[in-house]
Structure formats: structure tokens, C-alpha cells
Design brief:
four-stranded mixed sheet, 10 helices, alpha+beta, 4 strands
Amino acid sequence: MGTVASVTEPSVTHSTVAQRERAALADLFDAVGPDQPTLDEGWVTADLLHHLLIREGRPDALVADVVKPLHFWAERVIDGYRKLPWAEQVDVWRQGPPRFSPVSITKIDSLMNTAEHFIHHEDVRRGVPGWTVRKLDGETEQAILDQVKSRLSSLQLKSLGVGVQAQLPDKRIFQIRLGDPAITLVGAPSELLLWISGRRTACDVQVQGSPAALEMVELASRR
């Protein structure tokens, strides 16, 4: 089994958070290999990398993966990736989306991939025991905070059935989702994002609220 490598910084300079997280995750893929467990249930690093490759570079396989009669095509595309040496698979993703993809536009890449790349980077880092919380620069935390405050976060938390507000380390408080009863999530933006995305046992977040609200969250988390 691989270990959480100390490689958490990209090997070259990149201008956006999404680009830096891509480079750092690619370095980590190289370091740990294709068989390390991740936080994505049932997935090792190879499964996660193939997901990322298909997501931005093979829309045909992305559709086929969710349409059962066409699932064979997604598997065929993945088999094609598997035939490449691991380092080559990683490098395809490291180089970024193909030119025909809208994601090759920096602004769209940031919108689509700031949270995606950060979360999956942590899926690898925290997929084995002994992980630690990374100390992030202010630009990265602000970019992630924007994601936490987005409409998508509210939608992701709908199934909890409670209102949700967040409290940052500097004591700032903001509303994510209206509702009664309500809970308060206490943590850094990066940790809040992981909690919201379902990584609730692998993040540094305190959940506060009434017994009724906490019970509702616990019940919803078991579903």
C-alpha cells in the first residue's frame, strides 16, 4: 500500500488555484502509484485518475458511464488508459484538458475545477491513515470559501433537512442554507468544503447545534 507522500506542492508555477491543485495532485499520483486507497469509496488512485481523464477529455465516455446500455463504451475507454504506463496516464491529465474542451479556458477551468481538484487531491492525501491538514495560502482559502458560499453547497446540504451556517477561524459567520432547526459548521473554508462534499470523517470540522438538529444530521448521513 502507498503512503501519503510529502509531495503537496506543484513542481512548476501555475497561475490559478485549480491549476496548482491539478499539478500537486499529478505529483502525488506519480508518488503513490495506481493502487493507493482514496476517500472515494471503492476507488483506488487509478479509478480516480480515470474519472478525471474522462470528465474533461472524453465526454462520450462520460455520458456512456451513466447510461447503462452504453456502459461498455466507458469501460473500453478506461481500458485504453490502463494500457498506458502509469506515468503516461498521469501526464495526460497533468497537461490539462484538450484544446477543444471549454475547460481549456482558464476562467471556466477555475469555475469547474477549483473545488474538484482540491477535493480529489485531499481524497488521495487522506485516503490512508496518518494524513494531516495542509496549511493553505490565503488565495487558495479565499477561492475555496467562494465555493463554500455557492449555491451548489446549499443544494448539496438539502438532504440534511436542517439549516446550515458556517463559522470561520476568524469568527466570521455566514449562512449556507436556511432552515430550522439549524447547525453551525466550524472550520477553515477548505475543511468546510470537504465536509459539505461528504468527506465528514476525514476533515477538521466541528458540528454544533441542538440535539434535534444533530440527530437529523446523523440520520441523514446514514442514508
